[in-house]
Amino acid sequence: MLGIGSLNTTCELNYNLNFTRDIYLQGTGNLFILQGVILSCPLPGCSITINITGHLKLNANAKILGGSVYIVAGNASIISGSVINVTGLAPSDDGQSRGTPKDYEGGGGGHGGRGASCVMDNKKLPEDVWGGDTYSWKSLEQPFSYGSKGQSTNKEDDYGGNGGGRIWLEVTDVLHAWGTLLADGGDGGIKGGGGSAGSIYIKSNKM
């Protein structure tokens, strides 16, 4: 990596790193992502895994971007202005397409709740008309599922927004969190439904 030090002592990441496939970082030391530095794999479903026994620190305006971000650390500090962002980066072939509406009516993707629908049906109550359906209710205590894609308004063009990605943040001791974690669904625009949000799971002894 472009940085100073070792993941078994202290590594300071001081340059942007952009990957095109899954990455796994492991060590017994600390990882400090310095101010304004971006660690990214901004492709649908691309996984960034950080497994360290020391301290993970995202300094001001530092970013981690990916489809699935899985972090296990002894301690963690997410400084104000820093971001872990998996918005709109769910893969299209993750097996959870059941949350995507079947009809090409521009419905929103479903996940923990049903997706929105703009279709008017005079024979049904508004609450009986929806876009994508729900799923992953069995894993609500430890959510780690992708969001679903929104549907387009025609078969020829794909206007639906992508589903949100996944964030898992597990800290053995103390988590200081002033920054932002995002797992929103992608915007579908005026010709397609938005994707549903993904998942964020946070576990820490102290926060």
What is the tally of beta strands? Answer: 15
Helix vs. strand class: mainly beta
Oligomer: single chain
Measured by DSSP, the beta-strand proportion falls in 25-35%
Spatial shape: elongated
Distance between the termini: 30 Å
Mean pLDDT: 86
Main beta-sheet strand count, sense and barrel state:
10 strands, mixed
So how many helices? 0
Poorly predicted tracts of residues: none
Task: Give the SSE order as H and E letters.
Answer: EEEEEEEEEEEEEEE
Helicity, as a percent range: under 10%
Roughly how many Å is the radius of gyration?
Answer: 19 Å
Which helices and strands appear, and what pairs or packs with what?
Layout: E1 3-5, E2 10-13, E3 17-18, E4 23-27, E5 30-33, E6 38-41, E7 47-52, E8 55-58, E9 63-66, E10 68-73, E11 75-78, E12 83-85, E13 166-177, E14 180-182, E15 199-206
Parallel strand pairs: 2-5, 3-6, 4-7, 5-8, 6-9, 7-10, 8-11, 9-12, 10-13, 11-13, 12-14, 13-15
Antiparallel strand pairs: 1-2
Structure report:
The protein has about 210 residues and is mostly beta strands. The strands form 2 sheets. Strands 1, 2, 4, 5, 7, 8, 10, 11, 13 and 15 form a 10-stranded mixed beta sheet that branches. The protein has a 5-stranded parallel beta sheet with strand order 3-6-9-12-14, with no helix packed on it. A hairpin with a 4-residue loop joins strand 1 and strand 2. The protein has strands spanning about 5, 10-15, 15-20, 25, 30-35, 40, 45-50, 55-60, 65, 70-75, 75-80, 85, 165-175, 180, 200-205. The model has no long low-confidence stretch (mean pLDDT about 85).
